[in-house]
Amino acid sequence: MRRRTVTAGNLEEILQVTAPAPAPEQTAAAPATPATPxxxxxxxxxxxxxxxxxxVDETGAVHRHGTMRLATARDELRPQIDLxxxxxxxxxxxxxxxxxITRLGTLTDVHAGIVExxxxxxxxxxxxFYRRVNSEGHTRAAVTCPHCxxxxxxxxxxxxxxxx
Length: 164
Known about the structure:
Number of helices: 7
Strand order of the largest sheet: 1-2-3
Oligomer: single chain
Largest sheet: 3 strands, antiparallel
Structural class: alpha+beta
Strand content: 15-25%
Number of strands: 5
C-alpha cells in the first residue's frame, strides 16, 4: 500500500479527484434559476458575536464585535493536514476559528496569528460559540439566576448582560 503525503497546497486537487461523480439524473436536470450570491434561502449562515474582552491589535485598538459563518466539511478537514496542528493538536481550534471568523471589528482578514493573540477567555467564548452555531444551530443558552433561581434564555451573539 502506497501512502500519499497531503499538504495544504494540494488539498484542492485531492478533493476534486476524490469527489463522487454526479448521478445521471443530476447532470440531465440543470437548475432553472441559478442561485445568486447573497440570495436568502431561509438558512442563516452568519452569526454576530461580541467578545467578552476583545482583541487588542498592534495599534491598541480593541475589536469586540465580529461575525462567524457556519463551518463546512472542508473547514473541518483542512486543519487536519496543517503542520502546526500535526505538531500540536491543541492548535486545531486556532486554525479552525481563523477560517470561520469572517470579521472582527474593522479586521476582515482574520488569520491564525490574530486568534493566537486573543485572550484565553475570548478564545473559550469563540470555541463555545462555534459549537453552538454548528451543532445546535442557534446562539441561545439556558441560564439560571443566582439570586432568584429563575431560569431563562440569553442570546450569546451580542449585547451586554442586563441590556434589552
